Fold Magnesium transporter MgtE.
Amino acid sequence: MKTPLVAPELRELIQRHDISTLQDFCKFMHPMAVADYLSTLPPHDIWEVLRVLEPNLRAEIFSNLDEDVQLEVAESLTRDELAQLISDMPPDDRVDLFKKIPPEKQDLILPALAKAEREDIRKLASYPEGTAGSVMTSDYVALPPDITVREAIERIRLEAPDRETVYYAYVVDEKRRLIGLVSLKDLILAPPHKLVKDIMYRDVIYARVTDDQEDVARMIQRYDLIALPIVNGDNVLVGIITHDDAADIITQEHTEDLEKFTAIGGPHEAGVYMKTPVWHYFRYRAPWVIGLAGLELISGFIIHSFEETLSSLIILAMYLPMMAATGGNTGSQTAALVIRALALGEVSARNFFKVIFKELQVGLLIGLLLGLLLWLKVSLFAQYGQIPAGLSASKVGFAIALAFSLQVLLATFLGASLPLAASALKLDPAFVAGPTLATLMDILGMLIYFSSAKIILNL
Amino acid sequence: MKTPLVAPELRELIQRHDISTLQDFCKFMHPMAVADYLSTLPPHDIWEVLRVLEPNLRAEIFSNLDEDVQLEVAESLTRDELAQLISDMPPDDRVDLFKKIPPEKQDLILPALAKAEREDIRKLASYPEGTAGSVMTSDYVALPPDITVREAIERIRLEAPDRETVYYAYVVDEKRRLIGLVSLKDLILAPPHKLVKDIMYRDVIYARVTDDQEDVARMIQRYDLIALPIVNGDNVLVGIITHDDAADIITQEHTEDLEKFTAIGGPHEAGVYMKTPVWHYFRYRAPWVIGLAGLELISGFIIHSFEETLSSLIILAMYLPMMAATGGNTGSQTAALVIRALALGEVSARNFFKVIFKELQVGLLIGLLLGLLLWLKVSLFAQYGQIPAGLSASKVGFAIALAFSLQVLLATFLGASLPLAASALKLDPAFVAGPTLATLMDILGMLIYFSSAKIILNL
């Protein structure tokens, strides 16, 4: 694999102050590759390079920097330089940066922007985080339905330098309501004199500003789209979400899922690992470790209250860690499958009983197999002295095996039903899975284990 | 959000045998939307609809069906119908289907295909699973460097109906070595008489057929590409991977990561939840549940061997489940963060010591805080009778707190170092995380816990 190695060449050009070669070089490189290199320089030097570039290219490279680097560079600019740069940025990246700038500085910059940009920023910033509106861009190509293919291509040519994608053009009526879609491919294939309305797709796949950003990203992925149009409540086209932003949303959501599965929760943003300070990780991880440890006190109290049972049949202590682990493992398996299927839209809360029924079957099979193995293990291999007088190894084995079978069955039931119930209540299913579920299974497991021993063996 | 609701209209058209409306209808719908609807019909009826469509559209809709539905439909076709359909499919989907067809049937179909298609299938099928070669398509636009922009657009126009994407065209020399890239946007913006070689990007981002498919997919995502060219060892262009296939690869890898984190491993393909039989889930989940339960026997033996310590200080039983859970939770947190950072390319095995150092700091902070809280809890709130004569509650608290601090520190160390070591050895880091790590921490935790009590308290 090859990613462009620009560092040595760029460094030389900067040192030699060879502006024209520098300009050419940045023009023919991928903006992300230039941004990757610039990130290794101090903010002042980054601006030294960006300053000499043509405004659109400058804004594009700047948009590819990490947001914290963007902020550092922005700090060192004059009000007018910053206003100019912000004007040239793609609308979605611009509003993301703007939201991070301290409010007092925002108030300084806003008056320096043209009215159109100012209103665009205000509008995009007004959508709540997590909605399609908050991640869309307003840089799309819109066409009227009554122009010819030749005219459409000419319009796209004029608008292309400023647009995020020109490969899809959206057809809108006089009130800017979305009525169709033509791809650039369709346009170059069609006879030049044909009307746009005669070649456009009328059944456009779209989403609303208020839709969940993850649902919209999955739609873009499912339909293999380069971009998806976003409309407001009146079906007026207000923006698009592009395939690359959709991919970023899906990756971000996956990181969050994995974090919830591994006891790193809370309303924090997942940052770049190396740059995130130790203190930040401590703050978000410690409450989980300590909170879950606190809950395990309940399991401890249960053991404590069955102390007599435990001391009269010390072989029970042998299988205690296995009992706790098995509940958590089985529950996690089930929850992971169900949550994934929910996220990919393969099942919904409406399938509640079907999913539960399926998981109970899997749980029954695993539980019976594990129970059988444990019964054989205890009956055949219990060491001399482990089984007190008056009890048979086979009966003790049965009590232990029964507890394990019940625990596996219960773990599949809760592992499936808790995420489904959360989803039906519009909560995040991943929150009731992972360590929370494992802790719950520990507590229930201890209860089942000692109760089974006490009842079956009359202890 | 709105996905096209085609079912009622399509059903009516099929019942009325209204072929021409059906043809029109399918032409202006998204192929995936048509495929979604067709999936609800029996294989024979699916073919009844596809049969009347124009071959390219037929193949495109067919490619959007799930692979098991594709196979069912393929079963019901004559050799010639199937050969025709396979010829018209996109090369990457075609080879995926072909690999699923039983070998004896493959041998029947191959002679019915044109030589070009036959060789294309053989070539694409020859790349090992998991490589860029195995997921690329051979439907790309290639241009020579010495033609004009006008000629280039004309060529794209001619090739467009058969190409997966026409938005990037790859410039190759007379030996088909990759030397540049032009986007359709650049072409429509450039003066028509300019030469392709004068406007092309020369620093093309590319990958090799042997590169890992996940790395390539992440590259497409990082650089916001619509497609990435794939070259062989001689830099000859052999295929492209498009953004939508990259998104599918990333989602597939997400699913596999989550499965490894939740004890669902093994070389199985993640299928659609509702369609995957109970037996399949049993086969892949039972070995994990039972294997991990087996390993917990080691924890059991450790408790067994410290039986005297346990019975002389029964308060230890209270904190036993907490000890096991804390090791697993802390280890999982760390491993999840490190594995995610590895997957996103934020850290690599070269950062081994930096990552370990960072995690040890987080572990130390969490360990000290948890230890302090436990020491206070035991010293101040130990019930009468829990602390045997000759021992102070504060000393018992110290022994327990020390064990927990050490356990948290060890969990962050192993949670970070095992995935990094796996990555350095080119193994999958996710395999040494999740339940495997939790089980290891259970075993180590029991050792640390009872040793600490025995040594500090002289039991």
Q: What stands out?
A: The longest helix of chain B spans residues 393-424.
